[in-house]
């Protein structure tokens, strides 16, 4: 289990750091700027959100899950108060929150801090713009606390996600990624188990979201995951799959793009960790978020040995996260399922 836990943590961190340099560009622009297909850590250019960061530094995509895990292992549980404390601690770190936090997360943190919007602000019947990928981006590392229990992983991911993304589509995306990661933790798990769990998680997350969260209008997460998997399976090669997933599914801020794209890329890469991460880094748009999800899922499936040893060296040198120690604490985390 330790090998898989550390693999998921490292895969998510690597995806975040590597994708930070390519974010917002399309595939052609990425290749033009970096001289081809990106397969290593690059210094983010000055026209990206991660401007000023060093090659290998993480952004909000992994850091919010990392802080949440630290609080959870210290408390021996992950409930709403623990998740709330973790979110506020993360929001107090300027290099993460001030630079990278998305609009949905910023609005939610403001409310938690007591900054209530004026009463005359217009609020539509459905706030569809909040169906973003900020819940799903942190789901893979948080799912590790469930030690492979898919339903518990879904509940843990939703506990953390509801604070900022309490709607059926965002929670469906978080549950899909959490379920995929938990399934990947199985000793003899394969890519089929991961895909099947992601579809189940998407359906279950939508059901939970409709019962405990806000309803928003948008495409079905489950249907779009099935579509993304079909695209990946029918593509003749990984390069074509990346292009078609970008064209038909998208890889942007909305959860119904980023999450299906991540699952599709896992399939297109035939479950290989590094191939999947690099595919996400090069697909364009919200690359760090998509790559974080892919790395978290495939790192759990294949373990830390599926990645070059220098990945951990770079991530620790640039971020000082102590992932090996955190992985041991997650293995020892009490299972409340």
Protein architecture, described:
InterPro entries: ADP-ribosylglycohydrolase (IPR050792), Ribosyl_crysJ1 (IPR005502), Ribosyl_crysJ1_sf (IPR036705). Helices cover 62% and strands 0% of the residues. It contains 17 helices and no strands. Helix 13 crosses helix 14 and helix 13 (255-268) crosses helix 15 (287-302). The longest helix is centred in the middle third of the chain and has 22 residues, at 191-212.
Topology of helices and strands:
Blueprint: H1 2-19, H2 27-34, H3 60-75, H4 80-91, H5 97-100, H6 103-112, H7 139-143, H8 150-161, H9 168-184, H10 191-212, H11 221-234, H12 238-249, H13 255-268, H14 273-282, H15 287-302, H16 309-319, H17 323-331
Helix pairs in contact: 1-14, 1-15, 1-17, 3-4, 8-9, 8-10, 9-10, 9-13, 9-15, 10-11, 11-12, 11-13, 12-13, 13-14, 13-15, 14-15
Radius of gyration: 18 Å
Helix count? 17
Structural classification: mainly alpha
Give the strand tally. 0
Helical residues, percent? 55-70%
What series of H and E elements makes up the topology? HHHHHHHHHHHHHHHHH
Estimated share of beta-strand residues: under 5%
Major sheet details: none
Terminus-to-terminus distance: 17 Å
Average of the residue pLDDT scores: 94
Shape: globular
Low-confidence blocks of residues:
none
GO molecular function: hydrolase activity; metal ion binding
Organism: Candidatus Avoscillospira avistercoris
Keywords: Hydrolase, Magnesium, Metal-binding
Pfam families: ADP_ribosyl_GH (PF03747)
